[in-house]
Amino acid sequence: MAVGDVTQADVDGQPSTSVVSSASSTAPLDSRERRQLDVIRRFGTVGALLLAVGSLGAGAAPVNNPVWGLPVFGLFSRMTTVSLAIAFAGVFMIVLAWLGLGRLALPGRARMVSLPQMARTLVMWTAPLVLTVPMFSKDVYSYLAQSEIAARGEDPYTVGPADALGYDDILTKNVPTMWRETPSPYGPLFLVIGRGITWLTGDHVVMGVAFHRLLALFGFAMIVWALPRLARRFGINPVSALWLGAANPLVLFHLVVGVHNEALAIGLMLVGIELGLRRMPRCGPGGPYPPWQPGELLWYGIGAVVITLGAVVKIPAALALGFLGVMIARRWGGRWKHLFITAGALLVIFLAVVALTSIGSGLGFGWATTLNTANTIKSWMAPMTALGFGAGGLGIILGLGNHIDAAITVSRMVGTLLGPLLAAKLLLDSFRWRLRPMIGLGAAMGAVLVLGATVQPWYLLWAAIPLASAAGNTRFRTAATAISAAFAVALPPTGNTFDGRTYQLPYAYLAAAIVVAVALFVVRKHIPTRPRRKAPAPVETPAGRTQ
């Protein structure tokens, strides 16, 4: 059995013996491949350094940019196009290095990158990114302002930064205009942590960003810790899972550089699933179901609590409780009554943790009314919103009038209904063992978020990271690789629109492409090639001939 070819006879949460043996039978890289790995590491590290340098002028810098008055460093903030070209060159080099690394971490290879080698590569690529100015988004400045509102004793779920802090406050000035009057959409756990960061840093924007980045790195570390462990449970090579789920450019750009709180929420979700499955014994689709082991129920509860903590950072993590419940119900006996009892127990845990965090934080349950705050954005990346734009535009062409807003509202309503219905179908298929529960979780996350009103590149990580731990087929990896690479290079790193200065983008892209082409020419002899598949052995026919 090839690495990652998980069968329906595998364990709920545990791989079959054949999968484990095949996943652990890969040999270390030979000397030529180690040289290729070394070049790939350095290529990606140079890209990370370029991205860090480019961020000085092309990043989402604060209003009172402390770099402006510094010798040499201040030059980048006055050369926006040059800085943008440097940043794009870094983006391209990281993406290309990741693709090259993927060829050395491809499932089914006779020789693969080891876990320590992958870990060192991650450290080399991540270290320069820790020092960058925030890029690709300005959400971290909203985190600072909303945390300050909570620290002042006001309700961040009823007032926005402009009303609570004033337009002249330095934290408000750094929040994008569209969000200055918008209440917080984030859970109470995140704002409690943010309130602590505010207590430490006050209104010092740079220090506040640094502490939020530490929080994002903690979430990233949880992802790195959980992914290989979950991969082993589901019969996937842990190196391949880390490559797709942790070294992914979308993770590096939006969780590490962009400082998004998805890092903490996804990290808690994955750790919760891993802890919940820690004592789960082997049982196939039809049984037998062994007796309960000591402490097994305790670990299920701990896992559910940790997942719920992820949900009170960002609510999509709550969906993981359903698929954890499916695995518990199947381990219990796989009947409908087991599913309903498990669902009831997990619901009690979820409500208890939500109540404790909401009341204990002093913020209450107002966050439940602001979860759709992001829907005010009409993003072309959201398929249902794009469908509304298309339908409304067609109506204008046909002379029916401008009904774009109405078309977007209708298409979003369809997506809001269709996403949860697909998630419910995937949950049912997972319970019936037509689908691996972890694969079901990733697909359900993708259905709910992609069919939602707003889609951002980092939303894709909710689906990609769980799928990386359980889906080993090459078609999935090819699709996920292509989508990740495309979205990684499509979004400008500034976190701003280019209204009135779109001319900068083609110049920056062209200059970056030239630099990267030269770099590729220099390392062309060390680019790993895709391994050839072995030809099938000849089959002897009864007549003694071979086919």
Biggest pleated-sheet summary:
none
Question: What is the molecular shape?
Answer: globular
Mean pLDDT: 82
Question: What structural class do the secondary elements suggest?
Answer: mainly alpha
N-to-C span: 22 Å
Compute the CA-based radius of gyration.
25 Å
Helix tally? 22
String of helices and strands: HHHHHHHHHHHHHHHHHHHHHH
What low-confidence regions span 5 or more consecutive residues with pLDDT below 50? 1-24, 534-547
**Percent in strands:** under 5%
Strand runs, count: 0
Q: How would you describe what is shown here?
A:
The chain is globular. The relative contact order is 0.13. Mean pLDDT is 82; it is low at 1-24 and 534-547. It is built from 22 helices and no strands. The chain has 547 residues and is mainly α. The longest helix is centred in the middle third of the chain and has 29 residues, at 205-233. It has a domain at 378-453. Helix 2 (31-58) packs parallel to helix 5, helix 9 (188-201) packs across helix 10 (205-233) and helix 15 packs antiparallel against helix 19. This is Alpha-1,6-mannosyltransferase. Residues 15-28 have a biased composition (Low complexity). Its EC number is 2.4.1.-. It holds the Pfam family MptA_B_family. Keywords: Glycosyltransferase, Membrane, Transferase, Transmembrane, Transmembrane helix.
